[in-house]
Design a protein that fits this description.
Largest sheet: none
Radius of gyration: 43 Å
Strand content: under 5%
Number of strands: 0
Distance between the termini: 146 Å
Structural class: mainly alpha
Shape: rod-shaped
Length: 101
């Protein structure tokens, strides 16, 4: 003999349905959300370009600063040589050490 179990027609409710809390699939963005997303993407692209330009400018300014430092050192050396040459010329043109008075 085969026993047949009967199942209740109204099973007990262990789970309470909660609506609006969990989203199983992403909803389609509204038109405003799509526009804002597009605007933010455009802004991010422009900021990336701005960052690249600023990096190039900073690199050029760093190069100019290095050039300026080198030029200042060379000018100082040339001025010292000019002063030394001027003292020598003054000594040669006036061997007795007179000041040209």
């Amino acid at each position: 003999m085969v026993s047949r179990a009967t199942y209740p027609t109204n099973p007990p409710k262990f789970f309470i349905p909660i609506r609006g809390v969990f989203v199983l699939a992403p909803k389609k963005p509204t038109r405003f959300e799509a526009q804002v997303t597009s605007a933010m993407d455009d802004l991010a692209t422009k900021l990336d370009g701005f960052e690249a330009v600023m990096t190039r400018i900073l690199d050029k300014l760093t190069g100019l600063e290095a050039w300026r430092s080198t030029t200042d050192a060379l000018m100082e050396k040339l001025l010292n040589q000019a002063d030394t040459t001027a003292v020598r010329i003054t000594g040669v043109s006036n061997p007795r050490g007179g000041g040209g008075e």
